[in-house]
């Protein structure tokens, strides 16, 4: 994917335009494989605090639609959120920007392209396999209308989050930002 196609996907013209919820959503929810070099070039020019806030807001919005019985998924997504925010705020440190890009790409693949969630229609017991993104969208729609489902997120819980330890100061700053 070239830079122009990547920017079109994110609905931006310049890196400075990457500052809205829709931009991070387009990145994380893309059905297309994102090119590492294009992402690295973009994030090297994006304001670190803006990126951290976008990630925070995205995951907060996402957590509102996690089914009540999916506690493990909630905890996993919270851990991913904290890791991504920590990396965003420290992306000026050696190798952290590269790790952030890899983690965002890994998350996008797991979240929007890997079929890991079994959704069973309540009543008919019909099973379908979905991405985490699509299962959470179904859970959101389910509250408004339509079929009711039971979700099995256990396969999704195998998300391969690389270890990234935030400093104590980062965790305190994050907790005061919430």
Question: How would the blueprint of this fold be written?
Answer:
Blueprint lengths: L2 H8 L10 H8 L7 H8 L4 H16 L7 H19 L6 H17 L4 E5 L5 E4 L1 H11 L6 E4 L15 H10 L1
Describe the protein:
It is a single chain. The protein has 178 residues and is mainly α. The chain is built from 8 helices and 3 strands; from the N terminus they run H-H-H-H-H-H-E-E-H-E-H. The chain has a 3-stranded antiparallel beta sheet with strand order 2-1-3. Mean pLDDT is 90; it is low at 165-172.
How do you describe this structure in short?
The protein is 54% helix and 7% strand. By secondary structure, the protein is mainly α.
Estimated structural class: mainly alpha
The averaged pLDDT comes out at 90
Number of strands: 3
Computed CA radius of gyration, to the nearest angstrom: 17 Å
Topology as a string of helices (H) and strands (E): HHHHHHEEHEH
Q: How many helices does DSSP assign?
A: 8
Beta-strand residue percentage: 5-15%
With strands numbered from the N-terminus, the spatial order across the biggest sheet is 2-1-3
